[in-house]
Amino acid sequence: MITPNEVVHAKLTVPQFKRLGQFIHKNYGIQMPDSKKVLLEGRLQKRLKKNNFSSFAEYIEYLFSEKGQASELQFFIDAVSTNKTDFYREPHHFEFLRDTFLPQFIRQSSHLKLWSAAASSGEEPYTIAIELNEFKEKHRGFSYEMLGTDISNEILQKASKGIYEEKRVEIIPLHIKRKYFLRSKNREKRTVKVSRQLKQNLTYRTLNLTMPLVGIPNDFDLVFCRNVLIYFNRAVQEKVINAICKKLKPGGYLFLGHSESTTGIVAPVTQVAPTIYQHTP
Ligand SMILES: C[S@@+](CC[C@H](N)C(=O)[O-])C[C@H]1O[C@@H](n2cnc3c(N)ncnc32)[C@H](O)[C@@H]1O
Predict the structure, then answer these.
(1) Could you tell me the distance, in angstroms and rounded to a whole number, from the CA of residue 3 to the centre of ligand 1?
(2) Which of the listed residues 33, 70, 205, 216 has the most CB atoms within 10 Å of its CB?
(3) What is the Å distance from ligand 1's center to 31 Cα?
(4) Same-domain status, 142 and 269
């Protein structure tokens, strides 16, 4: 045990790293090659500090105890997950949504159901929501509902708040920013908050994509599952893609991240554009 103000620089041994790595891979699908040891050690330091432990041995014993599994596990996964994201990341997906998908969709239907399956801190679902609200202005009968999920509860809390540093929204054109973001009253903070309009058809919930997708609807028109499969091995990727396909309507679309693909994976999808797939059961 240490006093709260002491700085912790505990070392993670190789066997400890292997134990945690196997646990992470088994439960969350995330691969933990040896190259991630320093990263994991660094990220878990704050959990040791928070729990007043001076060694990883103490922390690991606690994490795997009944009490730790009930109260520390969520913080552990928050520390393990990589949440890098951006507004309008991989813009060709939003161009496809705007120029190809929505004009076709509105000819046959009016209510769109979509899922951002690794929503992180919200930039992806809010980018989609901007596009859908812009479309709605021109097509009054159009409506949508969006589900945003992620394994990390902490990152979803950030997404729900929808508060971002001004520099993170620089990429968004000024007239769009004025419409959908509110500047903080305290100008020193240099933050913006997403408008109620972007939040109103969006629900967040925690979900582990590598476990059975209990309670997730099975009639989505679109699923964005971007930049999360890269953390999984091929077998887990195949399992996750097939589980997602069961949640997509026939003809619905799946969007993957820029370095992800279904090459070598058996799944009922047909590629229609780079990293965009159609569910073809
Ligand atoms: C790099 S971010 C990608 C965010 C966004 N989709 C994008 O492309 O900008 C990956 C997200 O996947 C989440 N994640 C990692 N493993 C997961 C799992 N097994 N189930 C659900 N989400 C997971 C992480 O918490 C993280 O927020």
Answers:
(1) 34
(2) 216
(3) 13
(4) yes
Task: Return the exposure string of 144-161: e unless at least 16 CB atoms fall within 10 Å of the residue's CB, then b.
Answer: bebbbbbbbebbbebbee
Mutate to test the pocket of ligand 1, among 78, 82, 93, 228 (most ligand atoms within 8 A of CB): 228
Average per-residue pLDDT for the chain = 95
We report the CATH number of the domain holding residue 72 as 1.10.155.10
Say whether both 131 and 240 belong to one domain: yes
Query: Looking at residue 97, what is its pLDDT?
Result: 98
Name the residue range of residue 143's domain.
92-160+198-279
Banded model confidence at residue 5, pLDDT cuts 50, 70, 90 = low
Q: Is the CB of 29 under 6 A from ligand 1?
A: yes
Say if 224 falls within a structural domain.
Answer: yes
Centre of ligand 1 from the C-alpha of residue 111, in Å: 26
Let me know if residue 48 belongs to a domain: yes
User: Is the CB of 81 within 6 Å of ligand 1?
Assistant: yes
Going by the DSSP 8-state scheme, the letter that residue 66 receives in this structure is: H
How far, in Å, from the CA of 170 to the mean position of ligand 1? 23
CA distances, 180 to each of 68, 129, 139, 214, 253 (Å): 41, 10, 18, 33, 26
pLDDT tens track for 187-227: 888 999 999 999 999 999 999 999 999 999 999 999 999 99
pTM over 0.85: yes
Distance, CA of 276 to CA of 267 (rounded, Å):
14
